[in-house]
Design goal:
By secondary structure, this protein is an alpha/beta fold. The protein has 15 helices and 16 strands. The strands form four sheets. Strands 4-14-13-12-11-10-6-5 form an eight-stranded parallel β-sheet. A three-stranded antiparallel β-sheet has the order 1-2-3. The radius of gyration is 20 Å and the shape is globular.
């Protein structure tokens, strides 16, 4: 097995648990938020700074790296770790979500997906075998099966058809995987927002005995309570000894809500994306630093944060950088947002170990004017 997953403690109040995920490149403490390095870089954040803020695992994306610079080049460079100079753990998505979301013209068949590059319009084809071959070449510690991600909303009949195709593609992905000793292949549960389909998908994929499971097709526009409902019917069907990964989720409330429902791993581009728009997550709630109210605010962005930006710069200075469109603004705010999410997950792990999970969740969510949903 390429990975080892151990449960260290299960919360007495909720389904939350603390785990230790060991990959060929180190230990990842769960529950964990994973910064997204779509194109072999977390936007505006060098690997040195990722280490300083406590990142233990980051993501790359098969679709984007296939288009440029090309998986063959990355393999020639020694794999994704060496190419981007990151010695921690890496997970690569199969590219399924991007094939469906970025390509305005795609054609789905049983064999795979014919799509047009969002860069230059050129035609390409991904089958499960092709996607896994690319992921094998990239060399991440955890790779994802090729799946069909349905939009929200969609009809039950279409969601079922896509789910069943995802199941067949999961079997083909597993058969195509050539490096099971060094790369763990996770299956992806689909079914849109239909409880019966989510349950059916979970049961089918669990029978295939993947070393871990992604929960895909959520956070695609559905109301958050509906996402939590899908987690409540899905997560209990995933074996306790396998890591559970909620794909594409990264706001503070969703991290808390997912964890108390038993999710172990999360990722999202949100913290770096909103940073580039001048927004910060803080212990005092969201701060839109470009607002005029901060023009003469010489306090730290977040007095409770230990990141480089908060230790060294003021809100007034950060606002100046944003207004002047200086690159440093995007670097500092991205570092802060990632550090904030990583730090609240560190605090959440400690709270779970001490069986005070709900108290901690409520303290975090109080800054965002919300209570844990349906608890």
């Amino acid at each position: 097995m390429a990975i080892k997953f151990e449960i260290l403690h299960e919360c007495k109040q909720t389904r939350a648990r603390v785990g230790r995920l060991t990959t060929p490149h180190g230990v990842v403490n769960t529950p964990v938020f994973m910064p997204v390095g779509t194109q072999a870089t977390v936007k505006a954040v060098p690997p040195r700074d990722l280490k300083e803020i406590g990142a233990e695992i980051i993501l790359g994306n098969t679709y984007h790296l296939y288009l440029r610079p090309g998986h063959d080049l990355v393999e020639e460079a020694g794999g994704l770790h060496q190419f981007m100079n990151w010695d921690g753990s890496i997970l690569t998505d199969s590219g399924g979500f991007q094939v469906f979301s970025l390509s305005s013209l795609n054609r789905i068949s049983e064999e795979g997906v014919l799509f047009h590059s969002h860069i230059d319009g050129s035609r390409h084809f991904f089958s499960p075998e092709r996607a896994i071959a690319i992921e094998n070449a990239l060399g991440a510690d955890i790779i994802m099966a090729f799946d069909e991600c349905t939009p929200y909303p969609c009809e039950h009949s279409y969601a079922k058809e896509a789910m069943e195709r995802t199941h067949r593609w999961a079997m083909r992905s597993k058969q195509a995987h050539k490096r099971p000793d060094t790369q763990a292949l996770f299956g992806i549960i689909q079914g849109s927002t239909y409880a019966d389909l989510r349950q059916e998908s979970a049961k089918f994929l669990v029978d295939l005995d993947f070393p871990g499971y992604g929960i895909g097709g959520l956070s695609t526009g559905e109301p958050k309570p509906l996402m939590y409902e899908m987690l409540e019917v899905t997560v209990p069907l995933i074996p306790k000894d396998k890591p559970r990964y909620l794909m594409g989720v990264g706001s503070p409330d969703c991290l808390m809500e997912g964890t108390i429902r038993g999710v172990d791993m999360f990722d999202c581009v949100l913290p770096t994306r909103v940073a580039r728009n001048g927004t910060a997550f803080t212990s005092q709630g969201r701060v839109v630093i470009r607002n005029a109210t901060y023009a003469r605010d010489f306090s730290p962005l977040d007095p409770n944060c230990d990141c480089y930006a908060c230790r060294n710069f003021t809100r007034a200075y950060l606002r100046h950088l944003i207004k002047a469109q200086e690159i440093l603004a995007y670097q500092l705010l991205s570092i802060h947002n990632l550090r904030y999410l990583i730090s609240i997950m560190q605090g959440l792990r400690q709270a779970i170990l001490e069986d005070r999970t709900l108290e901690y969740v409520r303290s975090v969510l109080s800054s965002y004017d919300s209570e844990p949903y349906n608890l």
